Amino acid sequence: MAKIKKIILDAAEFHPLHKAWLNLAKRIAEELGVELEVKKEDYLFAIEHGQTDDLGMASLPQLFAELEDGRIVLLLAEYPFDPKTTKPDKEMAYEAVKKKIEEILSQ
User: Fold this and answer.
1) What is the pLDDT of residue 82?
2) What's this model's pTM, rounded to 2 decimal places?
3) What CATH class does 4-105 carry?
4) Least packed by Cβ within 10 Å: which of 27, 31, 52, 94?
5) H/E element holding 6?
6) Are 51 and 58 within 8 A, CB to CB?
């Protein structure tokens, strides 16, 4: 069974949703009782471990988990928007991350 060692946010402070991403990362790390590492615009990290486009480029922010065995897994690459309001939805983001974490922990 996999265990999460820390949460990693590869952030971009210029991003309009930077605060929402940071709050989500803090909430998840606190709930899991693990360290939060915030990387600042580490595109190489995101390219290596995250979601990339068809040219191999990564966009930021992206949220990751480092497992006890050293693996890095992607938790969230795109902040969800509520289709009814077309606004960013922090609860949808939280639920998406929690679902991914449950998948990881059940392996």
Assistant:
1) 94
2) 0.95
3) alpha beta
4) 31
5) strand 4-11
6) yes
Domain positions in the chain are 4-105
- For residue range 15-69, what is the model confidence (pLDDT) as tens digits? 999 999 999 999 999 999 999 999 999 999 999 999 999 999 999 999 999 999 9
Tokens 């995250």 belong to: 50
**AA identity, residue 37:** E
Q: Measured between alpha carbons, how far is 40 from 13 in angstroms, rounded to an integer?
A: 8
Dihedral angle at the C-alpha atoms of 44, 103, 54, 57, nearest 10 degrees?
Answer: -20
For 25-100, strand residue ranges (E) read: 35-40, 62-67, 72-76, 81-82, 87-88
